[in-house]
Amino acid sequence: MYTAASFAAGFVFGLGLLVAGMANPAKVLGFLDLAGAWDPSLALVMAGAVAVGAGAFAFMKERTRTLLGAPVLLPSPRRIDRRLILGGLVFGVGWGLAGICPGPALVLAGAGSAKGLTFLAAMIAGNGVFEFLEKKKRAAPGPAPMRSP
Amino acid sequence: MSIDWNAFTPASAVIGGAIIGGAAALFAVLNGRIAGVSGILGGLARPQAGDVSWRIAFVAGLVAAPLAWGLLAALPEIRVEASFPALVAAGLLVGIGTRYGGGCTSGHGICGVSRASPRSIAATLAFTAAGFATVYLARHLIAP
To answer: Is A126 in contact with B88 (Cβ distance < 8 A)?
Structure first.
Protein backbone atom coordinates (compact mmCIF):
# COMPACT_ATOMS: atom_id res chain seq x y z
CA MET A 1 0.00 0.00 0.00
CA TYR A 2 2.83 2.34 0.98
CA THR A 3 4.64 1.67 -2.30
CA ALA A 4 1.42 2.01 -4.31
CA ALA A 5 0.73 5.39 -2.67
CA SER A 6 4.26 6.45 -3.55
CA PHE A 7 3.70 5.50 -7.19
CA ALA A 8 0.37 7.38 -7.22
CA ALA A 9 2.00 10.51 -5.78
CA GLY A 10 4.78 10.41 -8.39
CA PHE A 11 2.25 9.81 -11.15
CA VAL A 12 -0.02 12.70 -10.12
CA PHE A 13 3.05 14.89 -9.67
CA GLY A 14 4.11 14.10 -13.23
CA LEU A 15 0.65 14.86 -14.61
CA GLY A 16 0.70 18.17 -12.76
CA LEU A 17 4.07 19.07 -14.26
CA LEU A 18 2.70 18.33 -17.75
CA VAL A 19 -0.49 20.37 -17.22
CA ALA A 20 1.44 23.25 -15.66
CA GLY A 21 3.94 23.51 -18.51
CA MET A 22 6.84 22.79 -16.16
CA ALA A 23 7.79 19.80 -18.31
CA ASN A 24 8.43 22.16 -21.22
CA PRO A 25 11.96 23.55 -20.74
CA ALA A 26 11.31 26.39 -23.20
CA LYS A 27 8.47 27.61 -20.96
CA VAL A 28 10.61 27.35 -17.83
CA LEU A 29 13.29 29.47 -19.51
CA GLY A 30 10.57 31.95 -20.49
CA PHE A 31 9.89 32.37 -16.77
CA LEU A 32 13.57 32.71 -15.89
CA ASP A 33 14.11 35.34 -18.62
CA LEU A 34 13.13 38.41 -16.61
CA ALA A 35 14.83 40.81 -19.01
CA GLY A 36 13.27 39.34 -22.13
CA ALA A 37 9.65 38.59 -23.01
CA TRP A 38 8.74 37.32 -19.53
CA ASP A 39 6.24 34.50 -19.04
CA PRO A 40 5.02 34.73 -15.42
CA SER A 41 3.12 31.41 -15.58
CA LEU A 42 5.45 29.49 -13.28
CA ALA A 43 4.82 31.91 -10.44
CA LEU A 44 1.18 30.81 -10.65
CA VAL A 45 2.21 27.14 -10.71
CA MET A 46 4.00 27.78 -7.44
CA ALA A 47 1.00 29.64 -6.01
CA GLY A 48 -1.40 26.84 -6.98
CA ALA A 49 0.88 24.16 -5.55
CA VAL A 50 1.54 25.98 -2.28
CA ALA A 51 -2.17 26.76 -1.81
CA VAL A 52 -2.98 23.04 -1.88
CA GLY A 53 0.21 21.80 -0.21
CA ALA A 54 0.03 24.17 2.76
CA GLY A 55 -3.27 22.68 3.93
CA ALA A 56 -1.92 19.14 3.85
CA PHE A 57 1.30 20.00 5.69
CA ALA A 58 -0.67 21.93 8.32
CA PHE A 59 -2.90 18.85 8.77
CA MET A 60 0.18 16.64 9.24
CA LYS A 61 2.00 18.98 11.59
CA GLU A 62 0.96 17.44 14.91
CA ARG A 63 0.49 13.90 13.66
CA THR A 64 3.02 11.11 14.25
CA ARG A 65 1.33 8.58 11.93
CA THR A 66 0.03 9.02 8.39
CA LEU A 67 -3.44 7.97 7.26
CA LEU A 68 -1.84 4.66 6.23
CA GLY A 69 -0.34 4.27 9.71
CA ALA A 70 3.21 4.91 8.51
CA PRO A 71 5.55 7.07 10.60
CA VAL A 72 5.64 10.76 9.68
CA LEU A 73 9.09 11.69 8.41
CA LEU A 74 8.82 15.41 7.84
CA PRO A 75 11.97 16.82 9.42
CA SER A 76 12.33 20.56 9.81
CA PRO A 77 16.01 21.44 9.91
CA ARG A 78 16.19 25.21 10.26
CA ARG A 79 19.89 25.86 9.74
CA ILE A 80 20.63 28.13 6.80
CA ASP A 81 24.26 27.44 6.05
CA ARG A 82 26.78 27.84 3.27
CA ARG A 83 26.10 24.35 1.97
CA LEU A 84 22.41 25.12 1.48
CA ILE A 85 22.96 28.43 -0.29
CA LEU A 86 25.91 27.36 -2.45
CA GLY A 87 24.12 24.15 -3.40
CA GLY A 88 21.05 26.19 -4.32
CA LEU A 89 23.13 28.57 -6.43
CA VAL A 90 24.85 25.71 -8.30
CA PHE A 91 21.48 24.07 -8.92
CA GLY A 92 20.07 27.41 -10.14
CA VAL A 93 22.86 27.82 -12.70
CA GLY A 94 22.13 24.37 -14.10
CA TRP A 95 18.39 25.07 -14.08
CA GLY A 96 19.00 28.31 -15.99
CA LEU A 97 21.23 26.59 -18.56
CA ALA A 98 18.64 23.98 -19.57
CA GLY A 99 15.29 24.93 -18.03
CA ILE A 100 15.09 21.45 -16.49
CA CYS A 101 14.96 20.46 -12.82
CA PRO A 102 14.84 16.91 -11.37
CA GLY A 103 11.07 16.23 -11.57
CA PRO A 104 10.68 17.38 -15.18
CA ALA A 105 13.89 15.49 -16.08
CA LEU A 106 12.11 12.23 -15.22
CA VAL A 107 8.95 13.30 -17.08
CA LEU A 108 11.02 14.20 -20.16
CA ALA A 109 12.71 10.80 -19.96
CA GLY A 110 9.29 9.15 -19.88
CA ALA A 111 8.24 11.21 -22.87
CA GLY A 112 11.18 9.70 -24.75
CA SER A 113 13.05 12.95 -25.24
CA ALA A 114 16.69 12.24 -26.16
CA LYS A 115 17.71 15.60 -24.75
CA GLY A 116 15.77 14.89 -21.57
CA LEU A 117 17.53 11.53 -21.21
CA THR A 118 20.90 13.22 -21.75
CA PHE A 119 20.13 15.70 -18.98
CA LEU A 120 18.91 12.90 -16.68
CA ALA A 121 22.06 10.83 -17.26
CA ALA A 122 24.25 13.85 -16.47
CA MET A 123 22.15 14.60 -13.38
CA ILE A 124 22.61 11.04 -12.10
CA ALA A 125 26.35 11.39 -12.81
CA GLY A 126 26.27 14.62 -10.77
CA ASN A 127 24.67 12.65 -7.96
CA GLY A 128 27.56 10.21 -8.21
CA VAL A 129 30.06 13.08 -7.99
CA PHE A 130 28.31 14.30 -4.83
CA GLU A 131 28.34 10.83 -3.27
CA PHE A 132 32.03 10.42 -4.13
CA LEU A 133 32.99 13.79 -2.62
CA GLU A 134 30.95 13.09 0.51
CA LYS A 135 32.56 9.70 0.93
CA LYS A 136 36.00 11.25 0.57
CA LYS A 137 35.09 13.92 3.11
CA ARG A 138 33.82 11.35 5.57
CA ALA A 139 37.06 9.43 5.21
CA ALA A 140 39.35 12.46 5.38
CA PRO A 141 38.81 14.40 8.66
CA GLY A 142 40.98 13.68 11.64
CA PRO A 143 44.15 11.59 11.70
CA ALA A 144 43.98 8.53 9.53
CA PRO A 145 42.95 5.46 11.52
CA MET A 146 45.75 3.09 12.40
CA ARG A 147 45.85 0.13 10.11
CA SER A 148 47.37 -3.12 11.06
CA PRO A 149 49.90 -4.16 8.44
CA MET B 1 10.71 43.75 -18.23
CA SER B 2 7.85 43.10 -20.63
CA ILE B 3 5.28 40.39 -20.11
CA ASP B 4 4.82 37.91 -22.94
CA TRP B 5 1.01 37.76 -22.87
CA ASN B 6 0.90 35.17 -25.66
CA ALA B 7 3.03 32.73 -23.69
CA PHE B 8 1.27 33.44 -20.37
CA THR B 9 -1.04 30.53 -19.48
CA PRO B 10 -2.57 31.44 -16.12
CA ALA B 11 -5.34 28.82 -16.05
CA SER B 12 -3.21 25.76 -16.86
CA ALA B 13 -0.49 27.10 -14.56
CA VAL B 14 -2.80 27.35 -11.54
CA ILE B 15 -4.54 24.04 -12.28
CA GLY B 16 -1.24 22.24 -12.94
CA GLY B 17 0.19 23.80 -9.79
CA ALA B 18 -2.80 22.61 -7.78
CA ILE B 19 -2.32 19.07 -9.14
CA ILE B 20 1.38 19.20 -8.15
CA GLY B 21 0.36 20.47 -4.71
CA GLY B 22 -2.19 17.65 -4.55
CA ALA B 23 0.53 15.11 -5.26
CA ALA B 24 2.72 16.59 -2.53
CA ALA B 25 -0.30 16.54 -0.20
CA LEU B 26 -1.04 12.89 -1.02
CA PHE B 27 2.55 11.96 -0.35
CA ALA B 28 2.61 13.82 2.97
CA VAL B 29 -0.72 12.47 4.21
CA LEU B 30 -0.22 8.85 3.10
CA ASN B 31 3.55 8.35 3.10
CA GLY B 32 4.54 11.02 5.61
CA ARG B 33 7.34 12.25 3.42
CA ILE B 34 8.44 15.30 1.48
CA ALA B 35 7.88 14.93 -2.28
CA GLY B 36 11.38 16.10 -3.10
CA VAL B 37 12.50 14.54 -6.35
CA SER B 38 16.26 15.13 -6.01
CA GLY B 39 16.29 13.58 -2.53
CA ILE B 40 14.11 10.62 -3.50
CA LEU B 41 16.36 9.87 -6.48
CA GLY B 42 19.54 10.62 -4.54
CA GLY B 43 18.64 8.13 -1.81
CA LEU B 44 18.91 5.38 -4.39
CA ALA B 45 22.64 6.06 -4.67
CA ARG B 46 23.07 4.75 -1.12
CA PRO B 47 20.40 2.04 -0.97
CA GLN B 48 19.31 0.85 2.46
CA ALA B 49 17.11 -2.14 3.24
CA GLY B 50 13.42 -1.23 3.24
CA ASP B 51 14.11 2.21 1.82
CA VAL B 52 14.29 1.41 -1.87
CA SER B 53 10.90 0.31 -3.22
CA TRP B 54 8.96 3.49 -2.35
CA ARG B 55 11.68 5.57 -4.02
CA ILE B 56 11.58 3.49 -7.19
CA ALA B 57 7.77 3.64 -7.15
CA PHE B 58 7.73 7.45 -6.93
CA VAL B 59 10.30 7.79 -9.74
CA ALA B 60 8.35 5.24 -11.83
CA GLY B 61 5.19 7.29 -11.30
CA LEU B 62 6.88 10.39 -12.68
CA VAL B 63 8.18 8.48 -15.70
CA ALA B 64 4.81 6.78 -16.25
CA ALA B 65 2.84 10.05 -16.30
CA PRO B 66 3.82 11.09 -19.85
CA LEU B 67 3.47 7.46 -21.04
CA ALA B 68 -0.13 7.28 -19.78
CA TRP B 69 -0.89 10.75 -21.08
CA GLY B 70 0.47 9.76 -24.50
CA LEU B 71 -1.91 6.79 -24.65
CA LEU B 72 -4.96 9.04 -24.28
CA ALA B 73 -3.96 12.31 -25.92
CA ALA B 74 -1.13 14.12 -27.59
CA LEU B 75 1.53 15.28 -25.11
CA PRO B 76 1.73 19.04 -24.56
CA GLU B 77 4.58 20.86 -26.26
CA ILE B 78 8.05 19.89 -25.03
CA ARG B 79 10.81 22.04 -26.47
CA VAL B 80 14.40 21.64 -25.28
CA GLU B 81 16.43 24.53 -26.66
CA ALA B 82 19.73 23.73 -24.93
CA SER B 83 22.45 21.93 -26.91
CA PHE B 84 23.67 18.49 -25.88
CA PRO B 85 26.92 19.83 -24.30
CA ALA B 86 24.88 22.44 -22.40
CA LEU B 87 22.50 19.71 -21.21
CA VAL B 88 25.40 17.65 -19.88
CA ALA B 89 26.82 20.64 -18.01
CA ALA B 90 23.38 21.59 -16.72
CA GLY B 91 22.59 18.05 -15.58
CA LEU B 92 25.87 17.79 -13.68
CA LEU B 93 25.30 21.13 -11.95
CA VAL B 94 21.70 20.20 -11.06
CA GLY B 95 22.80 16.77 -9.82
CA ILE B 96 25.55 18.17 -7.59
CA GLY B 97 23.81 21.38 -6.49
CA THR B 98 20.51 19.80 -5.45
CA ARG B 99 22.30 17.30 -3.24
CA TYR B 100 24.49 19.91 -1.51
CA GLY B 101 21.48 22.18 -1.14
CA GLY B 102 19.36 19.30 0.14
CA GLY B 103 16.54 19.78 -2.33
CA CYS B 104 15.23 21.16 -5.58
CA THR B 105 12.17 22.90 -6.97
CA SER B 106 9.86 20.23 -5.53
CA GLY B 107 11.34 19.60 -2.08
CA HIS B 108 12.36 23.15 -1.21
CA GLY B 109 10.27 25.12 -3.71
CA ILE B 110 6.89 23.48 -3.31
CA CYS B 111 6.95 21.38 -0.13
CA GLY B 112 9.29 23.60 1.87
CA VAL B 113 7.54 26.83 0.95
CA SER B 114 4.16 25.15 1.72
CA ARG B 115 5.53 24.43 5.19
CA ALA B 116 6.91 27.99 5.51
CA SER B 117 10.35 26.49 6.23
CA PRO B 118 12.89 29.35 6.43
CA ARG B 119 15.59 26.99 5.16
CA SER B 120 13.58 26.06 2.08
CA ILE B 121 12.59 29.66 1.43
CA ALA B 122 16.28 30.63 1.52
CA ALA B 123 17.19 27.78 -0.86
CA THR B 124 14.34 28.70 -3.22
CA LEU B 125 15.48 32.32 -3.32
CA ALA B 126 19.05 31.15 -4.03
CA PHE B 127 18.26 28.81 -6.91
CA THR B 128 15.68 31.12 -8.46
CA ALA B 129 18.10 34.06 -8.31
CA ALA B 130 20.84 31.93 -9.88
CA GLY B 131 18.40 30.80 -12.58
CA PHE B 132 17.43 34.40 -13.39
CA ALA B 133 21.11 35.44 -13.49
CA THR B 134 22.14 32.51 -15.69
CA VAL B 135 19.41 33.14 -18.27
CA TYR B 136 20.24 36.85 -18.24
CA LEU B 137 23.91 36.12 -18.90
CA ALA B 138 23.19 33.51 -21.57
CA ARG B 139 20.49 35.38 -23.45
CA HIS B 140 21.34 39.03 -23.03
CA LEU B 141 25.07 39.32 -22.39
CA ILE B 142 26.79 36.36 -24.03
CA ALA B 143 24.48 35.69 -26.99
CA PRO B 144 22.07 38.62 -27.30
So the answer is: no
